[in-house]
Amino acid sequence: GKDDSRYDKPQLSSLGQAMLMSRWKFAFDPYGIGVGQILVTYANWNSEEEKASIKNCILGLLEEGDIPVLNESDPVSNKEIVSMEKRISENDKLTSMVTFLVDANAVLFLTDERGVYTGDPKRDPSAKLYEEIDIRNMPLDLVISSGGALVTKGSGGIAQKLDAAINCARQGMLTVIASREEDVILRFARGESVGTRLGASNRIREK
Q: What is the CA radius of gyration of the chain?
């Protein structure tokens, strides 16, 4: 029941972090699994000592069977807040940075859509879902600009998500973009086909 108008965006973010972690704790408590929060800023990546500390914390929690939850420290860095207002998730870039840091084997990017489409499914009902995208021979409806930024026929944050995912796939990680549907993380971990895989061929999902 707080009056949101009394707070600026970094302050609201600070309050929101507590709510977010309480939800993660609620989700894992029934299984006796601990959850640890790690707040970072992009400036941390300018320091080898700080990068090593983040890596050790992540791996240490995992070794103990706990779940590390990482997020950009919005009260310290306003970059994420500004980006979200532009419908761009800097967390996708942060995700790729963390996967490189810990030498991850696989990474799952979650989105509002089922994956990457041939067009914008919100505007084009005939747009089809890619089951797999060849990262070395991109489909013609996915265009990489001369500046290196990836754009699509669609709109919104999927281009930035795809850009980050391609970087992970090029490092040999199993990389998938999928929707936030029920059990999607478990299904991905089991090796089931979900969303769009960044791989070695261009295939449209039949259904």
A: 18
